[in-house]
Amino acid sequence: MLTSPVLAQRASEQLPPLVVDSDAVRDDSKGYVVRRTDTATKTDTPLLKLPRSVSTVTAKEVEDRGAQTVQEALNYTAGVSTYFRQGNLTREYNRVRGFEAFQFLDGLKLHDSSWGYEVYGLERVDVLKGPASTLYGQGSPGGLINLTSKRPTDTPFREFMLRTGSYGRLEGGFDVGGPVNADKSVLYRLVGLGRFGDGQIDYTRNERVYFAPSVTVRNDQTSLTILAHYQYDPKLTVLQPLPRVGTILPGANGQYISRKLFLGEPAYHNTSKETARIGYEFNHRFNEVFSFQQNLAYQNIDIQLKEVQSRGALVGNSVVRQMTYQPYQIDLFQVDNRLKADFNTGPFRHHMLFGVDYSLSPNDQGTAVNRASQYLLNLYDPVYGQPLAANSLTQKRYQVQRQTGIYVQDRIEVGGFTVIGGVRGDWASLDQKTKVLNTATGQFSEPDWTPKRDRASTVHGGLIYAFQSGVAPYVSYSESFAPVSGADVTGKPFDPSTGEQIEAGIRYLPPHLNLLVSGAVFDITQRNLLTVDLKNPGFAVQTQEIRARGAEIEFKTTNLHGFNVVAGYIYLDPTVTKTNTAGGVGKDPAGMARHQASLWGTYTFDDATTLKGLTVGGGVRYVGASFGDALNTFAVPSFTLFDATLRYQLGVLTASLAGWDVSINAKNIADKRYVGVCEDALNCYYGAGRIIEGAVRVRF
């Protein structure tokens, strides 16, 4: 029998003030330890009632470590690898439990390419580990990364920041907000940042303009938050792949290739990205049972790629290059509607969710590739300024992607038990046509649209029991799917790639102690991956399957006797279980390290000594060896990196400087030269070198 206090409520009675799920989650993000998340269930859920593995990086962690990108923010998160293609400055490739994970912003998926987002505009970064298609649609079996934008606050807030450091970097930022009126029914926030400086690679720049305004209008039952941002990166750099010989092994005359080597041409180096986004989060509570949430966003991305880039081939000590020009235009419209019901049936407390989401993404890409010359560049003695031929568009690709999803989830609580179950149906479509230039007539072809349709259903479920001590063991199962573009030699469209995970874990979150310990074992399988069709060169078949089993543990504290600590370790056992590549079965996929560990900590002196107001800290990151190609013929060596921080509150010296602090952050202190990953013998990527930066910040 359905029971709820609202059934007996009189119309004249007032409901308590609306508490939005995301507000409760945000209030929980002041230190390193969080106690709740809305990423795993799309509802505000205490961790002790969540049978899934989730890690959160708060703004406090980002600030303490001086992280400048989402990748850097995740450097100390258990189960996350941030070293895949780290030298690529246009995109961010983060892997979770061995698989590439896509980024979401405020619960809505960003473009698959994961163009880097400004971390100064974020309140927290949540990593949901394992498949999540039941709530979010197409995605990775490894999990997802959900970025939460800074929002308006009840309390007036002002922050101004200036940072400078290695490679001539100079950066300024501001973050201001608070209530507009006395009853705090209208709130605002403005976040902005500007940066310029050189990159770690010759002839590259690190520049950005970022601005993010937001406004909240609310009353007791309704809340509307409008979120917008603009980000412009005028000087980006594309992939800089290097051969194994010269990076892992010494090359010509025993030399190593310089980490500063630029593979392009300074005269043909003009890659930029401009993105604008606007949307809102709407919340309305009808009564004590029913509430409605809607997230909506529109985003435009304009990318201009103009580079001389590597073709992944060598002639002696020189790399073969090509001229490439690719303009992109990407539009992304998304909406997620959720009806939530909180009610009792006997002793069972239900938190039920009914959702419908929709996304539309038309995108255009032009391509001009000039291979009229090999454009050779000596890797050890580069000489730039080669004559370049003309390069104009020869192909125009048009795509329209759509996805509609319907999902249901119920979180049921009884005693110390919580059970979660959900099911989803998805309908995805891709319509595509490619216009090809006829060089004789100078006209582009006019082909028909090629349609592709996919359907998928996914489920997830889990059980957790929370003891009063804060110990909570759990088990869970989840699934994922992702459409695969293209068709086989017969013209049959490829089936979606699917994934599934079985996970068992335990979480310790004591009620009166800022401590979080979590551990999990997992078994992930991904199916229907593409491999080369050996009987029909130039085509592909879906014969590959990868299985990744492992265990991970994470430890966090917030101001525990002055210490903020985060530590993590993962053991990963990845195996190619099916493939048509001879000798490939039983091998490790390239780039998946079996061991990864990290430890970061800070200590703040709060006693009445001469060190009061000083924070000291540091960290160590270890990544074990991985294989560098599909047949495991060579290994990428392990590496260990060290970071450090110092911060001092100037208000300790004089009351006139209250709210001021200065800090210094150093990353890869030893300036260790290392290779983060290799995809094969000709595509290896150096990791970032030493960076030292100082900042001054004032809050009032």
CATH homologous superfamily grouping: TonB-dependent receptor, beta-barrel domain
What share of residues is helical?
under 10%
Q: How is the quaternary structure best described?
A: single chain
CATH C-level? Mainly Beta
Total domain modules: 1
Instruction: State the total count of DSSP E strands.
Output: 39
Q: Mean of residue pLDDT?
A: 92
Helices, strands, pairings?
Elements: E1 2-3, H1 21-26, E2 36-37, E3 45-46, E4 54-58, H2 59-65, H3 70-73, E5 80-81, E6 95-96, E7 99-100, E8 102-105, E9 108-109, E10 122-129, H4 133-136, E11 143-149, E12 157-165, E13 169-179, E14 186-196, E15 208-218, E16 222-236, E17 271-285, E18 290-315, E19 318-345, E20 348-370, E21 377-378, E22 395-414, E23 417-438, E24 443-444, E25 450-465, E26 471-482, E27 497-508, E28 515-532, E29 540-560, E30 563-578, E31 595-604, E32 614-623, E33 626-627, E34 635-636, E35 639-649, E36 660-667, E37 675-680, E38 683-686, E39 691-699
Parallel strand pairs: 8-11
Antiparallel strand pairs: 1-19, 2-3, 4-10, 5-6, 6-7, 8-9, 10-11, 12-13, 12-39, 13-14, 14-15, 15-16, 16-17, 17-18, 18-19, 19-20, 19-21, 20-22, 22-23, 23-24, 23-25, 25-26, 26-27, 27-28, 28-29, 29-30, 30-31, 31-32, 32-35, 33-34, 35-36, 36-39, 37-38
Short note summarizing the structure:
The protein has 700 residues and is an all-beta fold. It has four helices and 39 strands. A hairpin with a 5-residue loop joins strand 25 (450-465) and strand 26.
